[in-house]
Records
---
Amino acid sequence: MRISDISRLSWDQVKRRKVVTALCAAGISIGCAAIIVAMSIGESAQLYIEKQMNSYLKMDEITVTANTGVKTGGNSSPTDLTLQDQGKLTEQKLDVMRQIQHVKAASPYRQLDYMELSTIDGLMAQNATEVIGTDLNMLTAFGNSFMQGGSSDMEGTIVLSYGATMGLVDELTRKNIQDQLNANPYDETVFQQYQNLNRVPTALYQKQIQLRMYSNDGPVLSMPLRVVGVLKKPAGVSDDQIMYDKKGYISLETAEILSKELKRGDDTGDSYNSIIVKVDEQSKIEQVEKQLQKLTVTTQTNLYQKERLASEFKIIKAAALGIGVFILIIASISIVVAMTMSTYQRRRQIGIMKVLGANLGQIRNMFIVEAALLGLLGGLLGVLFSYWIVWGINALIMNLSGEQDSVIIFIPLVTIPIGMAFALATGILSGIYPAISASRTDALTAIRRD
Amino acid sequence: MLRVEQLSHSFMNGNESTAVLQQINFDVHKGEMIALLGSSGSGKSTLLNLMAGLMKPTEGQIFIADHNIVTMNENQLAEFRRKHIGFIFQAYELIANLTVRENVELPLVFQSIHPSIRKKKSLALLEQVGIPDKAELFPSQLSGGQQQRVSIARSLITEPSVIFADEPTGNLDTKTEEEIIMILKRLNKTMETTFIIVTHEREVAAQTEKIITLRDGYLVTEQETVQEGIVAGGTQIEN
């Protein structure tokens, strides 16, 4: 029997028995949609969290530090200074790093310290700001964008993260609220006011600030630095998180001056104490890391976080898939019932076909193809449903969160063939019993009229 | 062409065996048109079902085109029916959701014949049975007589060795009955197809070349008929 004939005869039956077709297809479509939606939610959530983690843990970056070699203990400090210098981070090494394939940007970093930031007019932050010396022109290459201003090569300038502009309050105001809180430690309103002090941003662009550091000789105040740029608030991060992310970026030259001024004594000479390398794709991190290690440097990535996350999401996705498969099993029962009923209703027709020469295999194939068509229809409907469901979930998330950049569920293309395959398999598997039962119909009993 | 040898069949009714056919022997030659005549319960339908391979006899052999169908399994019988046997039913038994042409083509579908060949053959047969204009209609849009013509065309499409017609005029009025018998006779002559017609009506049986009369499971007479119609000295059938 030709495939086209089997398909046509089976399709005729699917078209003819509209209610049965609709019920079976609806059952399968729910299962198929459940699989697609569950997998999509898992995938989207993983991507969202990865994105969040990336913005926080910078998983597409490699931190390169000087390689100090292996120390064997005792007094065996390296005597050969040339050997010791091999692990240093030099200008030449930085140039080589920038040439490595998949390296998007490489910038020297010099972490000065955590320092208190204050304005000339007496506003002061309670939490310290991390001051980093780097190539300011490379800030945007590392995923930062400016809310105000931009980078500058001039000495005595600073670029602040959005978090660094938060929580600047004059000493008197802070003291007043602290006193009120001490007097009424259970007053929720005062506590809220105290909390809000750290959340309020101050317009610092083009203003002068000073950095204060505490050394053994007591507090040391830096020269005034002009704020030439303020970075944008990172997407998807709450104010409560941002207010602790206080960073001030200064040029390496300014860092040198500040280091001397604040008597830090960490002069690294003609080398850097770290270099951050940004890679174009997370998947290339390992490849780039291996290349970097050839330069006798120490490397560190946060890639293990991603692996940990992937293994956790693997469990979540497997559970989601399990739920979808369970729904499909329930749906398959409806097909078995509907097809078995259909077999009994069509016994006469099956009998006639057998008398006209249809063999067991031909009858069986017609029923299996019919069940497969039901599965296919259910699968197609399921894909459609899954898009509606995801659209609904997204609308709900946006309404509830009120944020445009909250978790947005998307349907990865790979989930569609997976959902369709499950739907088709459900159709075929549930059609096997009714098909065998149909093929065993006794022709004589079927065509006999009492 | 068709030979029945020592054919007996009995049904089990609980522990009791009821014989419905006993020691039946006859031959049908190629191109013959014969009638199996008998009243209700005479065993004629059982004999037809046995000859068509729809039942297995308790004893005896049935040869069609030199093949012993008694020894065949279900799939071999399906294959054999597909090539050698045509059926005409009393109630036409057309598939309601297929058009007239598709119904006629159906036996060829099971033989994997190309659609264009099927179409050509089915239209030619519909022309022969006098309903070429009904090809794309559904069975429900036809009269009883027209539906039986479709059934006749369907039985002929595989060019079988023998066609079994089970009370082919049983559901038709007298005028249509005559038309259908005329068609069967004409096709028997022109296509040289062997017809075995099961009937309880003497008038229908009289239109064939030979009448095999059954009574209570026994073959009682086997007579040639005269072309004018009624058989002289034939057995009276009680309806």
---
Amino acid sequence: MKLNRENRLIIGLCTAAAILIAKLFSIQIIDDKYKMDAENNSMVYSTIYPTRGVIHDRNGNILVGNKVAYDLLVTPKEVTEFDTLAFCEVLGIEPDFVRDKMQEYYNNRRRIGYQSVVMLKQLPPETYMRFAEIAYKFPGFRGQARSIREYPFNAGGNLLGYVSEVDASFLAKHPDEYKSGDYAGKTGIEAAREKELRGEKGYNIWLRNSRNQVESRYSEGEFDKEAIPGKDITTTIDAELQHYGQMLMANKVGSLVAIEPSTGEILTMVSSPGIDVDMLADIGQHYREIATNPYKPMFNRAVQASYPPGSVFKLVNGLIGLEEEVLTPNTYYPCSMGYHFGRNKLGCHAHKSPINFEESIMMSCNAYYCYILRDLLENPKYNEIDEALDKWREYVMSFGFGQKLGSDFPSELGGFIPDSKYYNRYYKKGGWKATTVISLSIGQGEIGCTPLHLANLCATIANRGFYYTPHIIKDSEHVEIDPKYKERHYTMVDTTHFPKVVGGMYRAVNSGFGSGGTASIAAVEGLEICGKTGTAQNPHGHDHSVFICFAPKDDPKIAVAAYVENGGFGATWAAPIASLLTEMYLTGEISESRKPLEDRILQGNLMDRVKVSK
Amino acid sequence: MRDTGGNKGRGLLKTIDWKLVICWLILVMIGWANIYASIHSSEPGSIFDFGCRSGKQFVWIVTALCIAAIILFVLNPRVFEGLSVPIYLFVLALLIAVIFLGIEVKGSRSWFAFGPIRFQPAEISKISTSLLLATVMSQQGYKIGRTKDFIITAMIILLPMMIIVLQSETGSALVYVGFIFMLYREGLSGWLIFLVGMAILSFILTLTASPYVAILVIIAVASLCICLYSGRLKLWLMAGIPLIVFFAFLPTLLDLWSANILGDEGVAALAAADGDYAAAGLHKPLASRIKPLYILLGSAGLMLPFTVFTAYRERNPFSHLAVISTIAGIVLVFSADFIFNDVLQDHQRKRIEVLLGMKEDPSGVGYNVNQSMIAIGSGGLFGKGYLNGTQTTYGFVPEQSTDFIFCTVGEEWGFIGSAALILLYVFLIYRIIRDAERSREAFTRIYGYCVACCIFMHLFINIGMTIGLMPVIGIPLPFVSYGGSSLWGFTALLFIFIALDRNEKKYF
């Protein structure tokens, strides 16, 4: 045969074919890598879902645990004729539901192929066990264990957040981490700590014969992967205190926050109305109900609502005044039912006059703080009022106001403290003076802060001048928190000035009825509670009731802020609530003499006072 | 004998190459049976059930048979030659139109949809291109060596190819590369095939090894060719090989040298801080600043004028061409990254990465190939028996009735069955080439070679893909894969050749 081009091409053809056949020979006959078992088996992977990390409270109680539920899987290809009625009866479902589902599977049979699909989700174990006993009658159906959330305490629904199956938009955002059917934390701690809590999926490898029946483990499980359970999280929350706080705040709109001053750990954070943990467990069923509730229970008021602080803010102005030396603790100012400037007046209530600094806190005198703010803003140290106001703002911000505190909540609000630019925009430069902004002195006007800011203020005073950033996750065996939560933040006010404020707060609570102290109702014998009331004016309805307190006076263990929307005077609702919480935390019970007060609070209902936009 | 012309002459049925027709029939039946095997478990029903793919394929087969009959018995084979230009232009227009009017299937716009019927113009463009090539190249005085003729020929092939690339069907476009074998038969210099092969090799070497290795290989091959051509093999063996070996070890030597100067710690620090020197304002030690690649390029640059001069003195145009190809090769090496990252589409890049082992990816792109190889591998020597496959029936292999149909063959019929199928194709192609060579008319011969090239490219790429020899390129296995367009296209392609062949024979 001569080597002309035709023959060369034919040789090339044969070579190419030889290469193909050689490779076929290698993978079909020589190489074992591509061989399955002699009985023509193929591998099936079945997913093992990890259990989610448990969330503990500060005392080791389980806030969020896990329980087993079963998803009912069906492999439509394997389903034969079955007794639909018996099937429905044991599972407690309607025959129509089954019929619709089977029709749906039939319509999608090409897409489903030999896969299994989930027919029913999260069956309780009792139901599933009843089904399992007669499962042999229903080929093609099987159960898959899933761990779902369980809440032993009705505490902290808003804080904990919920877990639900990932949806299409979530999958689009996390394409590699999640697969359809996985669960993920969507709000609160569940979302913030998703990475630690979720764990890692594993799989079992099974062998399947040519009739698609699972026969045995592949290599006796040698290549299986165990699921790695999620890491447990310890929160700073005290479950029992949280539960008690929720009871106190029931049927009221507002927040209750308690912090341990010596660490910045949040002991209790109630936003009322909130989400019941029963709803969390089955969020899918209740989601509409929650989303359409006019009181917005998903909204965590404690960190997301911006309120005027009211008279509580006098503490800050007083401390700034002392630091700026516009007054001494022995400065006396008169008050004749308010502070008069020109033809105007900022009103006050009846109390003795003149009074010194401690008494001004004790009696919550408005005029006294107008003098302080005016002296601060007209301080000759500063060239003009702009500079003085900005200096004042700097002081206020050093208490954590007007900015996000940096807590570990996913959505914290910064609040607002006005600066000179703000007023220059409103009144033009030079168009405003101290009396224009005089309501800042008593925590009204343009100031906005969250209940968390107020609790943090309380903790700062309890610590005599510094705070730790409030946080809700504690260091634990598996999870370490950011070191920033262990740093002290000092305010710009010297720590020597704080004892005078503390003294005023002590007298406000412990001077006894008739003395002029505004918070006598909060007094508990032996606890040395120090507090300050606030009544935030509200142009839309009843005033908001505000109270902060800490106890005991020396070596404080708890700092509380209560903010009750439309509650009226600080002493009416907020002070009892905060003091009851303090008492419960420190003594573990409510003393006999305060039981009537507790009853009044527990049964109090302010819901009809609150205007909601529907 | 020639009384009235037309369809008389020697008996109709005697002149048809029945072996080709039977080959076609066997392949089509194998395809049909395997399509049924690949879907019978997910769509139970009879093989004739028109609701499923095997039933539809039966319809395609019957209609393909009609097409074959029309081509054989109704059409005058002369029309193919006469109408090749309008057909070519018409198909070209369809190819362009489909970019705008077609529907999108898996990221490419190459299908027309008329209600439930889909049709891919790329399938008939193989026929129209083959016909026009045969017409042009069979003309009196055509010489492939002449630049003008060569350019026209190249344009005929490249035009549809480029449009198909624009449709994002790079796989289908690749088939046109196969026409190079036909051109070779018609007198194209073998060096061209060699150059194309070298280009592909250096591209792959650049991606898998390094530009250094690729350039060294190009230079080694080029110098060998020059020396072989001018009969100086001894010189090459004595001077070329030592030089190449020296350069091959140059990077290692440089590493050792810098290690000696700096000590081991210095090298470690260097490796860690590579690039930080400029930032820190420090001068890198000399040894590490010399890149072996530049030494290689420098020496090659010094050698160039010398080679050119020698070639000029000896009036050796071959050397000139070799030098030009070498430079082109080096340019290609440096643009390989650009082509790879910017010209190729994402999925194609991934497929090449997986094939070349640049990335391990058993669950993503590699999944298809891995599953397909497991399916074929599990077939063993004799296979699992018809309809007894497990891997293919339960949907582990994607596209199992179209592009991956060979998996079903491999799994259920084993090595014996799949090797037999390949041999059947080899026989078919061989038979086409033999018939083409025997024909008296250049038109029939050239067209025959075109048919052989198309079938060969599809065969090699498709089966190569299922067994991991080629990247995943979605083109069908001729006559076997599910699909009307592809079956009709290949049937017409083949039967036009059978008709041309018969037309000649009937008078002799």
